Amino acid sequence: MYSKTKGAGLLLVCVLVPATLTAQQSVQDQEYRAGGKAAIRATKSLDKSQSSLMDIDEGLSVIGTALESRSNGLFRLDCSHLVHTVYEHAGFPYSYVSSSDLYAGVVEFRRVTRPHVGDLVVWPGHVGIVVNPSENTFFSALSTGIGVESYSSAYWKERGTPRFYRYAKAATDDRQRAAGTSGLTRTALDASVNTEPKLSVDVNPANLKFPRVQIIDSAKPQTREVTTALLLSLSADPEGLREADVFKLTRPLIVFSQIEVKAVKIHGHQGQVQVQIAALLSLDGGQVNSKEWQQIQAWPIRWRGHKSWELLLPQDAIYMPRETAIRVLAHQLSVLADTQPPAANPRQKSQLAQMLNTILTE
Predict the structure, then answer these.
(1) Would the pLDDT of 2 be above 70?
(2) What is the mean pLDDT of the chain?
(3) Which CATH number is 7-193 given?
(4) Given a cut of 50, is residue 183 above it in pLDDT?
(5) What is the mean pLDDT of residues 64-90?
(6) How distant, in Å, are the alpha carbons of 101, 300, 317 from that of 314?
(7) Burial call 135-150: b when 16+ CB within 10 Å, e when fewer
(8) Is residue 119 pLDDT above 50, yes or no?
(9) Which long-range contacts does 143-148 make (Cβ < 8 Å, 24+ apart)?
(10) DSSP character at residue 168
(11) Domain boundaries in the chain?
(12) Which of 139, 171, 192, 248 is deepest in the core (most CB within 10 A)?
């Protein structure tokens, strides 16, 4: 689970620029400025009528791909390689450059003053992808792993004012044509960098299979072992949910940050388990409620024989831990953002982005 890191104690996977610059680093700063001016001149030389910047829907596709990367092994990459790989997987390739080169400016990206979702946020020595500009959050490789931070926090303010860049599709197309790859379409690019097939969101929510009973192999179940068994059950992706439309679920979806069994009360062959739930948000009838709440619920438990019990999970709601929700929602956002026409399902995309931002910045 990703936990926010505060203050100067945060160490990044990328090489950081020390606060006290050496003479050599001063020269590098001059090179940054010179490179930035050269990139701006190159950018201005493009025919703006032929240039097209990445729009918000495409930015959502990048974020969906980025958040999915937390579970597919990209955590081993440093910040610049992570961003480069995410963009390629989302279908927006560019020639790999370091975060310092991105800060100086490259032809595949245009500098912008007001970022939107999917844009780059760059310092000399570090780069990330904007998740929610209204809350100043960005996605990147950190010392604690892949996660989300606020670029308006004290630590990042000490790093200096970041620059924001937006992907320029026309500029990249020009590069591809110059390299003889003009026939490589976005679909082909997706296939070349991501062999996992994109699945359509067309599974009937009524056919989903959720866990109904959790088995506890113990003659006298204790709170800790019931909590462990419960988390194991709820952390598994419900069969088919990644491909289903979460806005058409027949039961409320509740994403929680913590769940803990506080007491086990047994009388004979049956009893109750008191479960404390700290919820981050809920989705009910297509409506997102980001209000946090905490409560204790009583769930029934009954004897199965042979020194084992079964905990009956409630059927009036779907309870999902935040890490599972990130995988499910990021996948759905990536799929929806890749549908045609690009403007399809704008409300669902916005809600998914809102839910992911709430979960990741918790």
Answers:
(1) no
(2) 76
(3) 3.90.1720.10
(4) no
(5) 80
(6) 53, 9, 7
(7) ebbbbbbbeeebbbbb
(8) yes
(9) 143/5, 143/10, 143/11, 143/12, 143/13, 144/2, 144/3, 144/5, 145/2, 145/70, 145/75, 146/2, 146/69, 146/70, 146/74, 146/75, 146/82, 147/2, 147/4, 147/360, 148/2, 148/357, 148/360, 148/361
(10) B
(11) 7-193, 205-360
(12) 139
Cβ atoms of 92 and 172 within 8 Å: the answer is yes
pLDDT tens for residues 35-50?
Answer: 444 443 444 444 443 4
Bridge partners, residue 302, by sequence: 270, 310
Among 40-44, 92-96, 172-176, 245-249, whose mean pLDDT is lowest?
40-44
Tokens 């992808």 found at? 129
Residue 203: both structure tokens together: 């599974």
Q: How many CA atoms lie within 13 A of 206 on its CB side?
A: 0
**Omega prior to 205 cis, within 30 of 0:** no
Query: What residues form DSSP beta bridges with 318?
Result: 253
CA-CA distance, 89 to 308, in Å (whole number)? 46
**Closest by CA position to 357, among listed 241, 255, 246:** 255
Q: Where are the alpha helices (DSSP H) in the chain?
A: 23-44, 56-68, 79-89, 99-104, 154-158, 169-178, 186-193, 223-235, 322-337, 346-360
Over residues 319-340, the mean pLDDT reads 81
What is the pLDDT at residue 249? 85
User: How confident is the model at residue 39, as a pLDDT?
Assistant: 40
* Helix axes of 56-68 and 346-360: crossing angle, nearest 10 degrees: 40
Half-sphere exposure of residue 333: CA atoms within 13 angstroms, side-chain side: 34
pLDDT above 90 (res 16)? no
Q: What was the pLDDT predicted at 341? A: 66
DSSP letters, 97-134, are --HHHHHH--TTEEEESS--TT-EEEETTEEEEEEETT
